[in-house]
């Protein structure tokens, strides 16, 4: 399987997995949506088997996602709303479990 775009803190015990994509075509958007939803399912499976669940976050942009309305609805549900766009990216840390990795000044 493909490697996620970002894994925090590491691939051995992930707490957060971020998938990011900018696409103008709906085929690429469909593929990324499928991947994001599969990562959500894998997180739930991990929890059911006694492991720690990880949070799946999507950072998305482009017309391709705009035409895939049902996929967007499913991703919003499966990620518990953890979908960010260029307009909301400034909230990425504060609105996700990434906040626990913030360094103290």
Mean pLDDT: 95
Succession of helices and strands? EEHEHHE
Supply the number of helical segments: 3
Q: Briefly note the structural class of the backbone.
A: alpha/beta
What is the approximate shape? globular
Spatial strand order of the main sheet: 1-2-3-4
Number of strands: 4
Helical coverage, percent range: 25-40%
Return residue spans where pLDDT drops below 50 for at least 5 consecutive residues: none
Radius of gyration: 14 Å
Q: Note the beta-strand portion.
A: 15-25%
Cα end-to-end separation: 38 Å
The main pleated sheet reads as:
4 strands, mixed
Descriptive notes:
With 105 residues, the protein is an alpha/beta fold. The protein contains three helices and four strands. It has a four-stranded mixed sheet. A hairpin with a 7-residue loop joins strand 1 and strand 2. The protein is globular. The mean pLDDT is 95.
Summarize the SSE layout with pairings.
Layout: E1 6-8, E2 16-22, H1 26-48, E3 55-61, H2 63-66, H3 69-78, E4 83-84
Parallel strand pairs: 2-3, 3-4
Antiparallel strand pairs: 1-2
